[in-house]
C-alpha cells in the first residue's frame, strides 16, 4: 500500500469514534478526502458526503460507516470508580482487563477495566459470564469529586489500541468495522478524481450504523441515488471454530467479497463480478439470503427503492480490539469499485426482471 494511504488508514483507526461520537474520525476523513472531491459537506446527523461530478448520470452512492462499537460512562461512585454501558454489540467475555481511552471534551484519558480477581471468585461465579455492571473503569483517582473534574457522564470509551502491522500485509486494530469501508471510499474517490467518471458520485462516511443503520438511512434519503453500494466488513471464516457450512468460505487476502441475495440488485452483482473479471481483481462471493446487517439494508429501501450492492472486506475477530484484515483486500476493493463505476452506462436498466 502506498505510504500516504497507509498513514491515513492508521490515523483513522487511531481516532475515537463510537456511534454518536464520530467527530474525530470525521475530521480525519474529511481533511483527506476533500482533496479528491468537487465539494464535501456534512448533514445534520454528522454524515460526511464527498461529491464528484455532481452533474453526471446515474447517481451513485458509496456508503462506509465511520462509527465503531465502544462504551459510555453511566455512573461514578463515591470512590471514583466509573460504571459504563456498551455502544453497539460487544462480547462481555472480552470486556475485563482492557486499557481504555475515555474521550472527554478536553482530552483523552487512560483507564483500565477492572473486576474481582479470579482468586476471589466463588466456583459458581467462575462458570458464569460476568454482567457489565460487575465491571468498572479505574482512572487512578481518589474519589468521585476528582473523577468528575476530569470526565462527564455520557463520555465515550474505546479500547486503548490502534493499528499495528502483524505480518507483511496483515494488520490488526480496533474499529476496522467499519473504518475500513470509510477508508475504501476515500481511496476510490482518490482514484476516480484522476479518471473523470461519467457518473455523479457521492461518497459517504456514514454515522451510527452500529446502533441501527441510522446515518445511511438519512443520507440515502437526502441523496436519493439510483445505485447505492455499502462497503463494510464481513466475517472471515479461515480460522478455527468457524463453520463454513453456515457462514461460507471467506478468506482474508483473497479479495473483496461481493454479496448476493435479496438485499442486493442482481444486475449490480453481475456488474461487480464483470468488473472484477475484466480487471483481473480477485474476489469472493457471499450468499446472504435475508436483509444484511449493513447500510445496504436501508439504502435499498430508500424512497421508491434503490439498486443496492454490498462489497465487504474479510475481517477476523469482528467487534473486538484485535480485528484483523489484509491491506491487499482494501486496495482491491477500491480498484473494484473504481472499475465498476467507470464501466457504468448512463442508460443502464437496473430493473431486475
Written description of the protein model:
This protein is α+β, with helices and mostly antiparallel strands and 353 residues long. It has 2 domains: 3-68 and 174-342, Aminopeptidase; 70-159, Peptidase M42, domain 2 (Elongation Factor Tu (Ef-tu), domain 3, Beta Barrel), CATH 2.40.30.40. 27% of the residues lie in helices and 26% in strands. It has 10 helices and 17 strands. It has helices spanning 3-13, 23-33, 123-126, 144-148, 176-192, 214-223, 244-247, 266-278, 295-300, 327-342, and strands at residues 39-42, 48-52, 59-65, 70-76, 82-87, 99-103, 108-114, 136-138, 156-159, 164-167, 170-173, 200-206, 227-235, 257-260, 284-287, 307-315, 323-326. An 8-stranded mixed β-sheet has the order 1-2-12-3-13-16-14-15, with helices on both faces. A hairpin with a 5-residue loop joins β4 and β5 (82-87).
| Number of structural domains | 2
Mean pLDDT score: 96
CATH top level of the largest domain is Alpha Beta
Give the helix tally: 10
Q: What is the gist of this entry?
A:
The protein is α+β, with helices and mostly antiparallel strands and 353 residues long. It has helices at residues 3-13, 23-33, 123-126, 144-148, 176-192, 214-223, 244-247, 266-278, 295-300, 327-342, and strands at 39-42, 48-52, 59-65, 70-76, 82-87, 99-103, 108-114, 136-138, 156-159, 164-167, 170-173, 200-206, 227-235, 257-260, 284-287, 307-315, 323-326.
Amino acid at each position: 500500500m502506498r505510504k500516504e494511504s497507509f498513514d491515513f488508514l492508521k490515523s483513522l483507526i487511531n481516532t475515537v469514534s463510537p456511534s454518536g461520537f464520530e467527530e474525530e474520525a470525521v475530521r480525519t476523513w474529511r481533511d483527506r478526502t476533500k482533496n479528491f472531491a468537487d465539494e464535501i459537506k456534512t448533514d445534520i446527523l454528522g454524515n460526511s458526503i464527498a461529491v464528484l461530478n455532481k452533474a453526471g448520470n446515474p447517481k451513485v452512492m458509496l456508503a462506509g460507516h465511520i462509527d465503531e462499537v465502544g462504551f459510555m460512562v453511566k455512573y461514578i461512585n463515591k470512590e471514583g470508580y466509573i460504571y459504563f454501558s456498551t455502544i453497539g454489540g460487544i462480547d462481555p467475555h472480552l470486556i475485563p482487563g482492557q486499557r481504555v481511552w475515555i474521550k472527554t471534551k478536553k482530552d483523552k484519558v487512560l483507564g483500565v477495566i477492572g473486576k474481582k480477581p479470579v482468586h476471589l471468585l466463588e466456583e459458581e461465579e467462575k462458570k458464569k459470564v460476568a454482567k457489565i455492571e460487575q465491571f468498572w473503569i479505574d482512572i487512578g483517582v481518589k474519589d468521585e469529586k476528582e473523577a468528575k473534574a476530569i470526565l462527564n457522564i455520557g463520555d465515550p470509551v474505546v479500547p486503548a489500541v490502534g493499528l499495528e502491522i502483524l505480518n507483511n500485509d496483515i494488520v490488526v486494530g480496533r474499529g476496522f468495522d467499519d473504518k475500513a469501508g470509510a477508508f475504501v471510499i476515500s481511496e476510490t474517490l482518490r482514484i476516480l478524481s484522476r479518471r473523470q467518471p461519467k457518473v455523479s458520485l457521492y461518497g459517504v462516511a456514514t454515522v451510527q450504523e452500529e446502533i441501527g443503520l441510522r446515518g445511511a438511512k438519512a443520507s440515502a434519503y437526502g441523496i436519493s441515488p439510483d445505485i447505492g453500494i455499502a462497503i463494510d466488513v464481513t466475517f472471515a471464516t479461515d480460522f478455527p471454530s468457524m463453520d463454513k457450512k453456515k457462514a461460507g468460505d471467506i478468506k482474508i487476502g483473497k479479495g473483496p467479497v461481493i454479496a448476493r441475495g435479496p438485499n442486493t440488485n442482481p444486475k449490480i452483482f453481475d456488474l461487480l463480478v464483470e468488473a472484477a473479471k475484466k480487471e483481473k481483481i480477485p474476489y469472493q462471493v457471499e450468499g446472504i439470503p435475508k436483509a444484511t446487517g449493513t447500510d445496504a439494508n436501508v439504502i435499498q429501501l430508500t424512497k421508491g427503492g434503490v439498486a443496492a450492492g454490498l462489497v465487504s472486506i474479510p475481517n477476523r475477530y469482528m467487534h473486538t480490539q484485535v480485528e484483523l484484515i489484509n491491506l491487499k483486500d482494501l486496495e482491491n476493493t477500491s480498484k473494484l469499485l473504481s472499475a465498476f463505476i467507470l464501466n457504468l452506462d448512463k442508460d443502464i436498466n437496473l430493473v431486475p426482471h
